[in-house]
Amino acid sequence: MMKTALIIPAYKPAKELLNLLAQFQGNDDFLPVVVDDGSGPDFLPVFDALPAGVTLLRHPQNRGKGAALKTAFRHVLDHCPDCGLAVTADADGQHRYGDILRVSQRAASHPGTLVLGSRKFEGNVPLRSRLGNGITRKVFSVASGVSVYDTQTGLRAFDRELMKGFVDIPGDRYEYEINMLLTAAQSGIPIEEEWIDTVYIEDNASSHFNPFRDSFKIYMCIFKFAASSLLAFAIDYVLALILKALTAAWPPAMSLNFSVIVARLVSATVNFSVNRRMVFNGNETLGKALLKYAALAAVVLALNLALMHLLTIRLGWPFALSKILVEVLLFCMNFVVQGKFVYRKKA
């Protein structure tokens, strides 16, 4: 009979962990696996009180949620051949017994699918959780081309074959869960969502999510794109200034058009190559992606020229200052359009 590994990474857990595991006693369909992620001696009483039948794995020092999950995955793959399914849950009481059962059943009936226990964020939800999930939802949609409502849920279920791939995904802390979703989206693994209750105990005070460190890692996709765009901007800006100086004797409109167009062609080539492989990891063919990028580049170039003409020729602003302002305005539009339409096929 196929069993489900109930995987719970635990760092400095409270009584909620014991309350959750107590509900699974007598349910032979589940094999609970708890990972003590370096909680320290003060929390030994909690782990010593784990119910019978729970497998306890330990990290001597805190290594992060992603590392704890992968430790459990390796244990299940190596030592639990009868576990054909895995469901991950948090140790802080946010995931209820009935929700875990429904998410697991959904995964069991949809082999090869990553099933998320997604929250609707209704009711009394801490502001940082509501805003954080809302922003991450939009960023993930652009970066992956797949819409997921709750990107930060820790309640996830998947079969053994998917676990074999998930164990090699990079990331040791909270960014691992985003990397799992990105890997699934980029690999064509179906992602489905099962609605669950939104539960926050004491305003989510037990959460160990670091808003600065962990948010930085989660939003690395944005930073990679910004770095790529900064490189393209530097090429565009310096080349445009050089060409503008070399054509200073030409009529103003001719000099402006030549400098902006040539600089944009060179920088766009660099931007396309870097974004396609290093930022968005697209699944669109090179030819189609190139055609769509060329169409976008033509629109951006037209806007660039129009704005530059307005600022420099009509309003008399300095060329260098106008160029910076125009590039900043076009950055956000480029990110959204490239992520959603240029590098990806329609689902």
**What proportion of the residues is helical, as a percent range?**
55-70%
Strand order of the largest sheet: 3-2-1-4-6-5-7
Average of pLDDT: 85
Strand content: 5-15%
Q: Write down the secondary-structure element order.
A: EHEHEHEHEHEHHEHHHHH
Determine the CATH superfamily of the largest domain: Spore Coat Polysaccharide Biosynthesis Protein SpsA, Chain A
Please give the CATH architecture of the largest domain. Alpha-Beta Complex
Indicate the CATH topology of the largest domain.
Spore Coat Polysaccharide Biosynthesis Protein SpsA, Chain A
Radius of gyration: 25 Å
Report the span from N to C terminus: 35 Å
Question: Biggest β-sheet, characterized?
Answer: 7 strands, mixed
Class inferred from helices and paired strands: alpha/beta
Number of domains: 2
Oligomer: single chain
Shape: elongated
- Secondary structure tally, helices: 12
Low-confidence stretches: none
CATH class of the largest domain: Alpha Beta
Quickly list its features.
7 strands, 12 helices, single chain, 347 residues, Spore Coat Polysaccharide Biosynthesis Protein SpsA, Chain A, 12% strand, 56% helix, alpha/beta
Describe the structure.
There is one protein chain. This protein has helices at 15-23, 44-48, 65-79, 97-108, 127-144, 160-166, 175-187, 213-218, 220-246, 252-279, 286-314, 319-342, and strands at 3-10, 30-37, 55-59, 83-88, 114-119, 156-159, 191-196. By secondary structure, it is α/β, with parallel strands linked by helices. The protein has 2 domains: 3-213, Spore Coat Polysaccharide Biosynthesis Protein SpsA, Chain A, CATH 3.90.550; 221-342, no CATH class. A 7-stranded mixed β-sheet has the order 3-2-1-4-6-5-7, with helices on both faces. Strand 2 (30-37), helix 2 and strand 3 form a beta-alpha-beta unit. Helix 9 packs across helix 12. The mean pLDDT is 85.
